[in-house]
Design brief:
The protein has 14 helices and eleven strands. The strands form three sheets. The protein has a seven-stranded mixed β-sheet with strand order 1-2-9-6-5-3-4, with helices on both faces. Helix 3 packs across helix 4, helix 5 packs parallel to helix 6 and helix 6 runs antiparallel to helix 7. The relative contact order is 0.11. The protein binds nicotinamide-adenine-dinucleotide (NAD), the ligand O=C(O)C(=O)C[C@@H](O)[C@H](O)[C@H](O)COP(=O)(O)O and zinc ion. Pathway: Metabolic intermediate biosynthesis; chorismate biosynthesis; chorismate from D-erythrose 4-phosphate and phosphoenolpyruvate: step 2/7.
Length: 363
């Protein structure tokens, strides 16, 4: 294996390895070692498949006799839908996929969540291998086993926990990632610093230019540190009974924004950037973090070229109504991940709706 490849182990009841480094999509022996049966469905999207799917098929086919079929969904969040899900079930049926079949998800978080959910449901669960191709998917969505699709009513409302057998993050593919998507991934990177690693925030501030310039060393360091944080949390709390909820910092606002825009406005990372800032302001309004911390967070996100204001045309009341269907909400009201300042966050129940509305109205 390439010396530049790093391995992060995810522990727990279903342990697996996250490998990160250049050239992994061509590591046919390692990819094929995950295949137990005779059927592979390689799921990708219309931007990624033309660039990388043939390489993965060739790498796999050189090392396994399994039949490899390719399913290509339209690029973009809209594919993470009931229709997209049904399409993948049809592909698995056409392939004749048996219970030992394996789904490979080659793409960003949309492909990972959608293909992962199909793998979770087909015959009540078949093998899944994540091949993340966006920064966001490498540092976040490919790890931890959350799979889901969206409904018009809300993000990720239908899903399952279905951990992958393995994750191979080929960092060489980040060269073709559009600028906007690189920035989106950096939002989730900032999240780790915000909730659990204050020195990482300082490091990100110092390496903003290097990350935006896609310097190999800076990207590799940011990915490794983010993956290590995610791996540690999901190993301790795979089903979000406790601390895993902290990974949802900014997401109550973000998911409301995405759904309210019909999944065609901000991408997920952009919505998370805005959401983290609103959560920081809400925390300040409730007397947790200092207002100055929210301003520092805003400066860092803006430095990465991420949006920090609510997009025009979104009504505060409509966003609040969306939040009532957030998965962290309970019968007794909204629960938010709030901020205690750099490196510390907590889940708080019973957050007054009036305070949330006030933050939304002033954003
Ligand atoms: N399961 C989880 O734990 C988790 C965590 C975070 C986010 N998510 C989900 O992930 C999704 C967002 O994922 P995303 O930001 O990766 O978006 P995405 O999957 O839509 O990918 C972004 C865009 O980049 C393109 N692309 C991907 N890789 C490329 C490459 N190497 N070169 C060129 N183009 C490339 C895609 O085709 C797409 O157009 C959301 O649905 C979000 O809810 C899930
Ligand atoms: O892995 C997690 O747990 C996260 O919350 C990571 C988030 O970045 C991600 O967007 C996740 O899909 C949100 O989960 P949800 O449970 O709020 O749908
Ligand atoms: Zn997220």
């Amino acid at each position: 294996m390439n010396a530049a490849v790093r391995t992060i182990a995810v522990g727990g009841a279903h342990p697996y390895a996250v490998q990160v480094g250049p050239g992994l999509l061509d590591a046919g022996d390692a990819l094929a070692a995950q295949v137990r049966g005779r059927h592979v469905l390689l799921v990708s999207d219309s931007h990624v498949a033309p660039r990388y799917a043939a390489r993965v098929v060739a790498a796999l086919s050189a090392h396994t006799p399994a039949r490899v079929a390719v399913a290509c969904v339209a690029a973009g969040e809209a594919a993470k839908s009931l229709d997209g899900f049904a399409g993948l079930l049809r592909e698995l049926a056409d392939l004749g996929a048996t219970r030992d079949a394996c789904v490979f998800a080659l793409g960003g978080g949309v492909v990972g969540d959608l293909a992962g959910f199909a793998a979770a449901c087909w015959m009540r669960g078949i093998d899944l291998v994540q091949l993340p191709t966006t920064l966001l998917a490498m540092v976040d969505s490919a790890i931890g086993g959350k799979t889901a699709i969206d409904l018009p009513q809300g993000k990720n409302l239908v899903g399952a926990f279905h951990p992958p057998r393995a994750v191979f993050a080929d960092t060489a593919v980040l060269r073709t990632l559009p600028e906007r998507e690189l920035r989106a991934g950096l939002a989730e990177v900032v999240k780790y610093g915000a909730i659990m690693d204050a020195p990482f925030l300082d490091w990100l501030r110092a390496h903003t230019a290097a990350l935006l310039a896609r310097e190999d060393a800076a990207l590799a360091a940011a990915i490794a540190r983010s993956c290590a944080h995610k791996a540690a949390i999901v190993a301790r709390d795979p089903h979000e009974h406790g601390e895993r909820a902290l990974l949802n910092f900014g997401h109550t606002f973000a998911h409301a924004i995405e759904a309210e825009q019909g999944y065609g406005g901000c991408n997920h990372g952009e919505a998370v950037a805005i959401g983290m800032l609103l959560a920081a302001r809400l925390s300040a309004a409730l007397g947790l973090a200092a207002p100055a911390h929210a301003q520092q967070l805003q400066a860092l996100l803006a430095g990465f070229g991420l949006p920090t204001a609510l997009p025009a045309g979104l009504a505060a009341e409509a966003l609040l109504a969306r939040m009532r269907l957030d998965k962290k909400a309970a019968g007794n009201g909204l629960r938010f991940v709030l901020w205690d300042g750099p490196g510390a966050a907590r889940l708080l129940a019973g957050v007054p709706e009036a305070a949330v509305l006030e933050v939304l109205r002033s954003a």
